[in-house]
Amino acid sequence: GNAEGRPIGTIYEHTSNAYQHKNVLFVTIDMFRFDDADTNLGDQGVVTGDISGEHLEWMESVLKEAQNIESIDHIVVQSHLPIIYPVRKYASSGMLVDDQESEKILDLFRKYKVDLYLAGEVHMNTVTKDPKSDLIQFVGRGNNLSNLTTVDVTTQVLNLTCYQENGTILGNLTIDKTSEKTKITGDGLLKPIAPDGLQIHWSFDEVLSKDEYVFSTSGSFPMTAKQNPLLKAMKNPIALQNDGGFEYDYSLIAEDVKLVEGKINKAVEITKDSKMFVIPIGPMDAGYERTLACWVKTDKTGRQLIFNNASFWGQGQFFNLSLNGGDLELSLRPDIYTHTKGQNLNDGNWHHVAIVLPKKDGLLDAVQLYVDGQEIADKVTEKGKTKIKTSQANWMSVATDIPSYKTDVFKAMGMVTYQGHLDDFGIWTRGLSKEEIRDLYVQGLKGLDAMQCSNYFKKKNRKDNS
Is 247 helix (H, G, I), strand (E, B) or coil? Predict the structure, then answer.
């Protein structure tokens, strides 16, 4: 139509373009914004993930013109960086589009009815439906090409199929526009995740066999030491299933642990020799909302590390859960932490603990600490005005010392690995309310786990909204 095929006159005129092939408009965007060598654009330095100025105007002109061309049935935009948080990550910088700019770009996609946004960078697959439209973000796997995805196009339907390199189908996704309301269905690895959902849920009730745990980026189990240095020392690793939204790739690889009677069905018994960690990265990063919750039972003293969420590559913030004596503790750096005061969590009984960042880009002072369903206001906090900024490329381990992490918290903070029982560990990519935390505790006493409670929260929210 009347829109240029490239953003002529900008520094992106050779890296962004638009092209119609048959009934599909493809818009390829160079999402790496660079103003000049002296202008710092944020945490990434002189380059950030964004579309702005004349580059943004050009993209809108293309999408707007497409509304008037009857032969275009589908609009596909592709770039390198994911826009919608969170996404699964593996062996990556973990970079996303700048959080401050993402909504501006998504609003354009919504306005002009973009069907599919294709992204990469993070080396894992994630499908997300935009909460405000029918836009689908599909993040594809690239590194070593261990899986691939095909897209079959008809007049009103897009069918995506993800294959392991041996031909095994890992998942399917259908975008069906044959009726007035678009119907989106997916399964397996291409099942859409809820951006604010329960992404990690280690119930410790299920051990996956070698056949059941097929890591989507390698297709094998046990994996090689290349995927994580801890694998070098492991002789008989098992996989403890994650049945949260990030699915089986985020199962805990474990050794020297025992499943015992827990607070809710089974729990894991952890000793000083236990090892538990996750191969991929995330889901938490930057200042996004989040909730961590679990049941603990220990009679040990000292500063015990339960959950280590740290980086191999930089000295950025972590988001670690520990017991400091008998108190619940969150630490961001060795000298930046907050913990409850006067609790007795190491009394040998089961206790429910939770950490909530209720709002995006909050300060450490805003973090809420809960014990047995109640928020604990009496806290000891060091550098409480620090803004939460979790490293975008962080690995997760449970009660495990990983020397290759850039920050050795055991040495820097005088920590030891948690020893005791652990049950029903969950990570939500939103801040749960006081009522929801209370429900986790009360319903847990009745035998309901975090997944069952999370499904109840969704039903209740739908009822309240209606």
Answer: coil
Query: What distance in Å separates the CA atoms of residue 37 and residue 9, rounded to the nearest whole number?
Result: 19
User: CA 83, CA 99: separation in Å to the nearest integer?
Assistant: 8
**Exposed e or buried b per residue across 87-106, where buried means at least 16 C-beta atoms within 10 angstroms of its C-beta:** bbbbbbebbbbbbebbeebb
CA distance 149 to 151: 7
Q: Are 307 and 417 in contact (CB under 8 A)?
A: no
Query: What tens digit of pLDDT does each residue of 220-279 get?
Result: 666 665 656 667 777 788 999 999 999 999 999 999 999 999 999 999 999 999 999 998
Query: Is the bond into 192 cis (omega within 30 degrees of 0)?
Result: no
pLDDT tens digits for range 302-327: 999 999 998 767 678 999 999 999 99
**Three-state DSSP class for 445?**
helix
The structure's pTM equals 0.94
Cis-peptide, bond into residue 283, ω within 30° of zero: yes
Neighbours of 109 (CB within 10 A): 23
Task: For the chain, give percent helix, strand, coil, nearest 5.
Answer: 15, 35, 50
The owner of tokens 């040998």 is 348
Burial environment of residue 442 by CB neighbours within 10 A (0 to 12, 13 to 18, 19 or more)? middle
Q: Which two tokens stand for residue 129?
A: 């439906």
- Calculate the alpha carbon distances from 462 to 36, 131, 197 in Å: 47, 14, 14
Rounded-to-integer distance, Cα 192 and Cα 230, Å? 31
**130-131-132 Cα angle (round to 5):** 90
Contacts of 451 (CB under 8 A, 6+ apart): 198, 201, 203, 243, 244, 426
On whether the CB atoms of residues 276 and 397 are closer than 8 A, the answer is yes
CA dist., res. 202 & res. 2, Å (int): 54
